[in-house]
Write a structure and sequence with these properties.
Elements: H1 2-8, H2 22-45, H3 50-81, H4 93-121, H5 126-136, H6 142-149, H7 153-181, H8 185-209, H9 218-221, H10 226-244, H11 250-263, H12 279-292, H13 296-315, H14 321-337
Length: 350
């Protein structure tokens, strides 16, 4: 019995790649090739410094590897303790290594795109998006409505915890969580593919197409706007109230930092400005989609979280309300499109 338990406790350790089924090896190869080619092109088409890129790549790969190992070990222990848990059996060791590579590479290359490809594009869509928000909300700016419903620094701090801390952890760990907890291989593949492709389609291609800075940067980068000037003044007051109470609203500290890196391009851990579509909301929508694949109640919890992220994106002036709606809609479209990955092909006979 002791030998059996010891053998089972080592199941989460990656198997040799050649022991993984051929169709899974092909999926791994396609995903790695996709992000590898994208990264190669970015490094050769931008002024990003190779040394800086390698430093960030190493750091993000290390962080992703630690997250994957921690999640793999935790879910494996849950399966040992609760054989009938929602976590389906799966030899996910090799996949955890692949998702760690995908995660570290994707975040690094997305930083390069956002900080070196986006600035020359400019922000032609902000005036239209501001007018669209104003029209959709019957002559009111969404940020003003949200602040009227959630006044003061306490709601701001709660939204800040969701928007920065919780979202970043979930975003970074999502590929490993999907691999270890989704109910079958097809769902795992779709979730990881959605995560990867969304950074390219939603966070990069669509962001470039709909170049926009967002309400908090309107006056600095677009032109004078009384409503958004009042938004920045309100956010400054809320930040001061939080500090007086002994709390820092971190997302408000990031806003001047992103503006600084935009004006003086240099690869930074936090940098780049783009509003439409909202990657924060799109990714939160993926969290909800993935959670529904595990437990229905968890899906509803993550739906509420996604709504909180959308609210926070408007509350802090990062995004127009429509940015989140488009981001979530695009992510749902990607989820539906990835069903094509799981279509079974007829077996070839010799």
């Amino acid at each position: 019995m002791a030998e059996q338990i010891r053998a089972r406790s080592l199941l989460f350790i990656p198997r040799k790649i050649r022991d993984v089924p051929a169709h899974q090896r092909r999926s791994m190869g396609r995903l790695l090739a996709l992000i590898g080619v994208a990264g190669f092109l970015l490094l050769n088409l931008t002024d990003a410094d190779y040394d800086d890129a390698l430093i960030f790549l190493g750091l993000y790969l290390l962080l992703a590897a630690c997250a994957s190992l921690g999640i793999g070990f935790t879910t494996h222990r849950i399966r040992l303790a609760r054989p009938n848990s929602a976590i389906a059996p799966f030899d996910y060791g090799a996949w955890l290594g692949v998702t760690a590579l995908i995660t570290g590479m994707t975040i690094t290359f997305f930083m390069i795109f956002k900080q070196f490809i986006m600035p020359p594009r400019g922000f032609p869509f902000d005036p239209f998006l501001a007018r669209l928000d104003h029209w959709l909300f019957l002559g009111h700016d969404p940020w003003a409505i949200v602040h009227a419903v959630l006044p003061g620094w306490i709601p701001a701090k709660i939204l800040d915890l969701c928007y920065t801390n919780a979202w970043f952890v979930l975003m970074y760990c999502f590929p490993a969580i999907a691999i270890t907890m989704a109910r079958n291989y097809e769902v795992r593949l779709r979730l990881v593919t959605c995560w990867l492709v969304s950074w390219m389609v939603i966070g990069s291609a669509a962001a470039w197409l709909f170049g926009s800075a967002g309400p908090c940067y309107y006056n600095a980068l677009i032109g004078p706007n009384e409503s958004f000037a009042l938004l920045n003044q309100t956010l400054s007051q809320i930040s001061a109230q939080g500090r007086a109470a002994g709390f820092t609203i971190h997302t408000l500290d990031y806003q001047p930092q992103l503006l600084s890196t935009f004006l003086e391009p240099e690869l930074e851990a936090v940098g780049g400005i783009s509003a439409m579509p909202s990657m924060h909301v799109a990714m939160a929508a993926l969290f909800a989609i993935g959670a529904f694949q595990i437990r229905r109640w968890l899906g509803w919890v993550m739906t509420v979280f996604a709504l909180a992220i959308w609210t926070g994106s408007v509350y802090f002036g990062w995004h127009y309300a429509t940015d989140g709606l488009v981001g979530a809609g695009m992510m749902f479209g990607l989820w539906k499109a990835t069903a094509l990955l799981t279509l079974r092909r007829p077996t070839r006979t010799s």
